[in-house]
Amino acid sequence: MKKLFAVLGDPIAHSMSPAMHNDLFSIYGMDAHYHPFHVKRGSLEEAIKGLKAIGIAGFNITVPHKETIIPLLDEIDPLAKSIGAVNTVVNVNGKLIGYNTDGSGYVKGLIEEFPLINDKNVLIIGAGGAARAIYFTMAEAGVRRVDISNRTVSKAEVIVEECPYAANSNVYGMNEAENILGEYDLIIQTTPKGMAPDSFELPLSLHNLNRDTFVSDIIYNPLETKFLGEAKKKGARIQNGLNMFVFQGALAFEKWTGIFPETSRMKANILTQLG
Ligand code: ATR
């Protein structure tokens, strides 16, 4: 029987996951379908009951449900539990098990182009959900130093305090971080600044950027944010958010099927969707 997979979110109409996963099911010859479902805030519990009743094989969870899904699942992977957010669910014999592949997807996508992260000094800009997932994943992996800079410093402090994995970390406001940018081997931009309608804005100035620093932005639309453009002008190597999106999806696909899929094909699929 055809297996059903899904993504639940609000909004969901523009999700690029269905075409990406359906293409994988087709190339691997699997009788499966991935469908987007528009689920509003108050309807998540009912939606999960329905999906369980019809025997859904697995699903992704996106905004605004990544945190509220947790009490509705049967088991949560320890890293996802500590992050406090789930983006991937697998149905194992009727039990729904939650994982977070956002942080691990980021790191796996990063090391394709910037290997050996453990002895590096890292700065994460922003303290939202994506920053938290990336911070926890890097702390768990034992990266030497992971600092966070954020407009609201207290939010960065909460991430560091709540992380169960010991990490060497300082938190900064944006101006303080601007002054010490040259100390970092890797800078990860996780705020929405740079996405339309903020496309011409920077979360912080790059005047002290060192050309040996690798600069990454988790935004993939546009593919080159102003932040990445400025970093490139300074001679730094850059990476956009396409790899994070593709690798979080690849890790979800692997949890559902046991196959780690061809990420170059997934990237091409997303680039086609972006037009
Ligand atoms: P996520 O989807 O990862 O949860 P988000 O909620 O869209 O991310 O973004 C949250 C982060 O972007 C926060 O760090 C936020 O800063 P505050 O904690 O000070 O609110 C940051 N952010 C959002 N808009 C910003 C802006 N215009 N300038 C600087 N930082 C901004």
Question: Can you put this structure into words, describing what you see?
Answer:
The protein has about 280 residues and is of the alpha/beta class. It has two domains: about 130 residues, 3-Layer(aba) Sandwich (Rossmann fold), CATH 3.40.50; about 130 residues, NAD(P)-binding Rossmann-like Domain (Rossmann fold), CATH 3.40.50. It is about 35% helix and about 20% strand. The protein contains ten helices and twelve strands. The protein has a six-stranded mixed sheet with strand order 2-1-3-5-6-4. Strands 9-8-7-10-11-12 form a six-stranded parallel sheet, sandwiched between helices. Helix 4 crosses helix 5 and helix 4 crosses helix 9. The longest helix has 16 residues. It starts with a strand and ends with a helix. The relative contact order is 0.13. The model has no long low-confidence stretch (mean pLDDT about 95). Bound molecules: 2'-monophosphoadenosine-5'-diphosphate (ATR). 2'-monophosphoadenosine-5'-diphosphate binds next to helix 5. One of its GO terms (cellular component) is cytosol. This is Shikimate dehydrogenase (NADP(+)). InterPro entries: Aminoacid_DH-like_N_sf, NAD(P)-bd_dom_sf, SDH_C, Shikimate_DH, Shikimate_DH-bd_N, Shikimate_DH_fam, Shikm_DH/Glu-tRNA_Rdtase.
